[in-house]
């Protein structure tokens, strides 16, 4: 466990100027991380993308009160659509020469909903859309000084087997979909990391956090609303702690890239570098739990998946959908 006081101490040492993009930043984990970023970075420049203009207006007001030195830009978009992701990325590339942090939290508990582009909406948000943001913005991440980091929040350390080659989990049970989805996020990060060893990638499990994940219609979201209402006050991680821990994951040199030296805030003497998903310290891709610790059991799970070729099958599927929808594997 990384103690909260260590997390907070690290967050007070951020570089004075950082550029960050928060995809899914109008509620829950993304909002808390965005606010923590504004609180601790002296001159932050933050872009946040989401569906709710009303929520964005509230957050913008709060950000300006927290840190008037910051620049904050909201872009309203339904990022379950790959073409919308491309539009947002084109705008970002026209405005910025580099990005230090790409923070991704989009998701839904609703199942069975299809996007206009023919993707299962749940899978699009956690796999196709997130990966599209990463590959589109990778040149800006690789160009950044001081820090180059991608954080994707879902079910880090809870990776499991693939039920079959139904990568969009249209016909996969909820419990199996969790492990399969976690593996899909981690394996896709590992694939991208091979082309960008100067960038580090973190897939984390946030633990129980108050969020808007159950906002959509359907039996599972409705059930979770009642679960959150009854048990939430007893189990939820405080909003501020969630924000602090996710900012730590996004900025601490405990999770460095394998080359390049742009690792973020140096760790204190005696603190160990985190183990990557291959079980080796500092290898560049990290799957961590709600207290910022690397997984152990998932290392063997992921090794088995790679041996069986699931990483390559998954990537072929992702790229095939991109080409089908947009005609190209990325905007670069």
Automatic annotation (TrEMBL):
Keywords: Oxidoreductase. GO terms for molecular function: oxidoreductase activity. SUPFAM superfamilies: NAD(P)-binding Rossmann-fold domains (SSF51735). PANTHER family: ALCOHOL DEHYDROGENASE-LIKE C-TERMINAL DOMAIN-CONTAINING PROTEIN, YALI0E05731P. This is Short-chain dehydrogenases/reductase. It comes from Clohesyomyces aquaticus.
């Amino acid at each position: 466990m990384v103690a909260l006081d260590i997390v907070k101490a690290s967050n007070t040492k951020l570089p004075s100027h950082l550029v960050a993009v928060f995809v899914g930043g109008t509620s829950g984990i993304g909002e808390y991380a965005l606010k923590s970023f504004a609180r601790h970075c002296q001159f932050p420049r933050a872009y946040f993308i989401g569906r709710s203009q009303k929520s964005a207006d509230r957050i913008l007001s709060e950000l300006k009160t927290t840190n008037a030195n910051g620049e904050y830009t909201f872009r309203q978009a339904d990022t379950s659509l790959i073409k919308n992701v491309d539009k947002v990325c084109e705008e970002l590339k026209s405005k910025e020469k580099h990005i230090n942090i790409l923070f991704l939290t989009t998701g839904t508990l609703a199942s069975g909903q299809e996007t206009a582009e023919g993707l299962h909406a749940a899978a699009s948000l956690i796999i196709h859309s997130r990966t599209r943001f990463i590959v589109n913005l990778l040149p800006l991440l690789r160009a950044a000084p001081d820090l180059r980091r991608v954080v994707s929040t879902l079910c880090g350390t809870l990776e499991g087997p693939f039920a079959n080659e139904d990568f969009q989990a249209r016909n996969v049970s909820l419990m199996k979909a969790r492990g399969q989805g976690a593996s899909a996020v981690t394996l896709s990060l590992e694939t991208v990391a091979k082309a960008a060893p100067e960038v580090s990638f973190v897939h984390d499990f946030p633990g129980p956090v108050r969020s808007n994940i159950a906002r959509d219609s359907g039996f599972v979201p409705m059930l979770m609303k009642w679960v959150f209402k009854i048990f939430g006050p007893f189990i939820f991680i405080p909003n501020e702690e969630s924000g602090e821990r996710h900012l730590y994951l996004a900025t601490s040199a405990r999770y460095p890239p394998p080359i390049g030296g742009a690792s973020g805030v140096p760790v204190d003497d005696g603190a160990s570098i985190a183990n990557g998903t291959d079980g080796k310290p500092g290898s560049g891709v990290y799957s961590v739990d709600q207290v910022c610790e690397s997984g152990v059991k998932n290392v063997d799970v992921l090794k088995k998946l790679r041996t069986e070729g699931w990483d390559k099958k998954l990537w072929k599927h992702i790229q095939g959908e991109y080409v089908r929808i947009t005609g190209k594997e990325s905007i670069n």
